[in-house]
Specification:
34% strand; alpha+beta; 3 helices; Jelly Rolls; 17 strands; disordered C terminus; eight-stranded antiparallel beta sheet; seven-stranded antiparallel beta sheet
């Protein structure tokens, strides 16, 4: 095992709820499909022409999240209201779509939204399950854009065919990246902006039918009001709820390079050869 592989493995082992990380789209793909590094999902196939290789999240302070070792790129959707998204698979038999309405999970992602092109309200959709008009149920995570200047914006968790659930409102600065997340626990929805909790709602979604699909950047069969407009980076889904501190850590990891070895890791690295020598006797 080389050093890079070793430290990658150890970093993942130290990740919040690592055993529960069921999807991780870094969106560092430079062309074509998008890759889930957990290996739980097939590659996402593009519709339209999303722009790969765009600048990713940069070093800086984003609310409670501090990025010091930023790496990778992002993907651009839009900037006009066009159909650009990625569909994950040809059925609903995948870990994210099998997260149940009576279970718990956390969904999150980085985004740099572009201003509204008109006064029409839009959902800048990060991730969704289900399909058109809510007939196949499922859920979606998006930024709800209400006004062209970015004021009165909210995080929206939609139970398709059930209800749109919005966080308390906040104001956007279109020059900056933001990180949004929701935790879901058998109908309890809690919203996080830049690692800080906003508020909670109570509303359960319904599980997907066989026609549902997993989509990044839109909703399958949705209209232009459900298209992402801007940059996306570091999308993750865990199959349990994370604390605010764990969400902050996951947000950092999702857009950062493998860190330099720490004293603890170096100490553990020294143990590995010992075990190998002991086995060889």
């Amino acid at each position: 095992m080389n050093w890079k592989t070793f430290f990658t493995v150890m970093t993942l082992a130290a990740s919040p709820a690592n055993a529960a990380l069921v999807a991780n789209w870094g969106l560092d793909d430079l062309t074509g499909p998008i890759f889930d590094s957990t290996g739980n999902h097939v590659d996402g196939l593009p519709t339209g022409s999303p722009s790969h290789g765009m600048p990713g999240v940069q070093n800086g302070i984003y609310g409670a999240i501090s990025i010091n070792n930023a790496a990778g790129t992002s993907i651009e959707f839009g900037p006009t209201a066009v159909d650009e998204f990625f569909t994950i698979g040809t059925d609903n038999l995948n870990p994210v779509m099998n997260l149940g309405a009576t279970g718990s999970f956390t969904a999150m992602g980085w985004m740099k939204p572009y201003p509204l092109g008109s006064t029409v309200q839009r959902n800048y959709r990060i991730l969704s399950t289900g399909s058109a008009a809510g007939v196949d149920r499922g859920w979606g995570l998006s930024l709800r854009m209400n006004l062209t200047d970015g004021t009165n914006t909210s995080i929206r968790f939609t139970g398709f065919g059930i209800a749109d659930n919005d966080s308390s409102a906040f104001n956007l600065d279109f020059q900056n990246w933001i990180h949004i997340a929701v935790t879901y626990n058998s109908g309890l929805i809690t919203y996080f902006l830049n690692g800080n909790m906003l508020d909670s709602d109570v509303r359960a979604f319904e599980n997907e039918s066989a026609n549902g699909r997993l989509v990044v950047g839109s909703r399958l069969g949705g209209n232009d009001a459900d298209q992402m407009n801007g940059l996306l980076d570091g999308i993750r889904v865990y199959d349990q709820i994370l604390t605010a501190e764990e969400i902050q850590q996951a947000a950092v990891e999702s857009v950062s390079a493998v860190p330099e070895p720490t004293v603890a890791l170096l100490g553990l690295a020294g143990i590995v050869p010992c075990f190998r020598r002991r086995r060889a006797r």
